[in-house]
Amino acid sequence: MTQSKTDTALEHIVSLCKRRGFIFPNSQLYGGLQGAYDFGPMGVELKRNLISTWWRDVVYRRTRMFGLDSSILTHQKTLKYSGHAETFCDLMTDCRQCKSRWRVDHLDPDNPRCENCGSDDLTEPKPFNLMFKTNLGAVTSEASSAYLRPETAQGIFTNFKFITDTQPAKLPFGVAQVGKAFRNEITPRHFIFRVREFEQMEIEFFVDPEESDQWHKYWVEERLQWWVAQGLSAENIQCEAQTGDELAHYARATTDILYKFPHGFEELEGIANRTDYDLAVHSKSQDTLSPQSKVSENPDSTTRLAIQHTETKNWQIPFVIEPSAGVERGILALLTEAYHEETLDNGNKRTVLKLAPHLAPIKVAIIPLAKNKPELITLAESIQHELQADIDGPVVIENSGNIGKNYRRHDEVGTPVCITVDFDSLETTTSDANLINTVTLRDRDTLKQARIHKHDLLTYLQQNYFNYRYKPKSFNQ
Ligand code: GAP
Hints:
Blueprint: E1 2-4, H1 10-19, E2 23-25, E3 37-39, H2 41-60, E4 65-68, E5 73-75, H3 76-81, H4 84-87, E6 89-94, E7 101-103, E8 126-129, E9 132-135, E10 145-148, H5 153-158, H6 160-166, E11 173-182, E12 197-207, H7 212-229, E13 237-241, E14 253-261, E15 264-273, H8 277-281, E16 307-308, E17 315-316, E18 319-326, H9 327-338, E19 339-343, E20 349-353, E21 364-368, H10 374-388, E22 395-397, H11 403-413, E23 417-421, E24 438-443, E25 449-453, H12 457-464
The structure holds glycyl-adenosine-5'-phosphate.
Glycyl-adenosine-5'-phosphate binds next to strand 12, strand 15, strand 18 and helix 9.
């Protein structure tokens, strides 16, 4: 077999995603809704696996981490005081020739031209706010307006007091949240890389202001390691510190984790030091609070967002370190890394997704070697029943009869192992006593086959495939 991993063109991934049920363009039957994608039966499993691995590694494998699920609809004042209503903008320009609209920083800075018709007859850049505005209730007015959240983070800040009042929250501690965010991107592009509706996996990690630089470093290193543990190779990842204008209005420092997507190195996750900016701007009175706060007063807030120092008992606004990852970008990075085209020894070609087993949409496929043989199906079903109880994810039976086709399908959806049951597996038909109740395991990546007794299957699979472990660096080291 020739194994090669060359740079994967985005079209190949898009085509595989559609062909095998990972990701579909939204509303395609009506011409499509730009910047919106739907996750099909395989995609939803991959997405859930990524999110649940993140949650387990971030929340359960650490102490002092709490979870939250805040609402998508967001109070207009939250986004006023956070600064998003005024500053969450991209500069846009219109092409006077073909009337298309572009994000200025996506055009060639030395020779800006319309990407559609090539004209340089572009309007003066003007800011375009990326938030989706909506109205609550039957009356449409400015007072009834609200937003779809542009980041999940604000829900964590506005719930800060509820969390610290109800949980044993002493600095440093973190709050994790996964959920939808919405941005009216001027030019959605590169498949699911830049979309208008997406999910974020965000941590707000509250720390003593004096220690914020070291915690920022801690989280950059941790998040980098975590992506490698999900199967991204270190050479396809870079870290880049944002400078000057790149920094968001709330950030003192941000390090981006960049991945080598098919269109080039771009942001997969950002780790920001948001200082005390957000808690301060949403906090009712500033007088007893930290001098770090940049805002004067918030006359609309009813609540002081601060924490009492364990020793001095003084109230302080913690700083916050924010690792913020996009789920869709995570999926695109994983698909890019996993996608391989190979030539087999017999000259045939195959496409295979080498996803880490804990992320694979289907964990095990059991294939009866001959179609419509009740004895083989019964054996396959009994193995399925045994494995299903302990393997965390789908264990399926493929009974279409064409083994080559079954292997191709499972290579393309990334099933790490296929099990074939044949007549030698059956007591009644084999002459070789050693083969009774044994089955053949085929490894997705090496194509190596092993004959295993059905009673040893679960242990074998757990030891060789479903053995994902991630050990974060402790907060105390
Ligand atoms: N709370 C901080 C925050 O939202 P961000 O850098 O704007 O920071 C965080 O977004 C992550 O969300 C990005 O690293 C990216 O993975 C993802 N993301 C942002 N905009 C996106 C979009 N339009 N489509 C897909 N993912 C996006």
